[in-house]
Amino acid sequence: xxxRYRLLGDFIRQVDVRNTDGKEENLLGVxxxxxxxxxxxxxxxxxxxxxxxxxxxxxxxxxxxxxRGDKIGIALLTDYDEGLVSNIYTVFEVKDENELLxxxxxxxxxxxxxxxxxxxxxxxxxREIMDWDEMCKVELxxxxxxxxxxxxxxxxxxxxxxxxxxxxxxNLEKTIKAVFKSWFxxxxxxxxxxxxxxxxxxxxxxxxxELLGNxxxxxxxxxxxxxxxxxxxxxxxxxxxxxxxxxxHSFNMTLFAHIDDKTDELLKRSRIYVNDIVFTIAGTLGKxxxxxxxxxxxxxxxxxxxxxxxxxxxxxLYSYFIGEWQVEFxxxxxxxxxxxxxxxxxxxxxxxxxxxxxxxxxYMQLVTPLIVGMQNNFSEIxxxxxxxxxxxxxxxxxx
Length: 399
Prior knowledge:
DNA binding, alpha+beta, Restrct_endonuc_typeI_TRD, 19% strand
């Protein structure tokens, strides 16, 4: 055992309280993001008395690690006084919170190194599990309780800052949507302006529709390197997959893969540049983001389309996507196969309503500061995540 490290089993104990009252509220699962989530299990005909009760401040983990992408599902209950979990899950608690803070322990579990450790220590034939004995053999540094509180406080401060930036971005996005709706759907900003008939309906005089493909220098998608006999690498050129693009139009850089320079040269058709819009076209459709300098050099696979334009401002096109201009059109034209997908041809056929040049300038004066604000917040959130990761990495040297 490392010096100053302790066995986790000295600090924790299993809890097995059954739901004898048959309650059916707060049925929870555990995600590989190490959070409690509402359970999606089919509960028709379920005997709820067999479920385990987990209380605020207690942990739950899923011993089976073989089907979770090399991660272990484990979480600390903080959002409810109590919940219900499957009887195949393990519930445990800290014996004495004056010796080990549950929040500090959860930070230890949050480290990528713990996921790797859990997989290494898992065993079994049909299913690989990390059983209770192995959990108790986990070694970790246990500094003074004051030091633990200081570490937890620092982490929570960063987390609160991230959530603040996300809320600000939610408001900025809502504002962009409101401006977009006023301009391009309701024409509220053009009282008294003559409306004329177009092939898609009434529009302000001087405006016109243009297909997205005619506004773009490039609409393409990538290739998975493994289909060329090439492997991903630990470092190198960023390789963006659909899962790397968040619902809030930011990038999750921790989910980027990487390729070397030679593979990037083979895939040069799908290189990504600053101000490109990337858009998921297979699996989970319609997630998108505007590329900035923090992402490049980068490439992508066939599940992500690259939309590049110099004929209108990229930020203007980006605001159309935020305004959900494309949603109904793409829903009607989605191809259904093994998984839903959009063809590049369908993307190009999206009709875009364009103001005259003065109107475009006026519109961009309104939305550009909002988009810049969102991008700046994305950058700060990424830096804050890096700080969190650095703090987690330093846990192994905590004294």
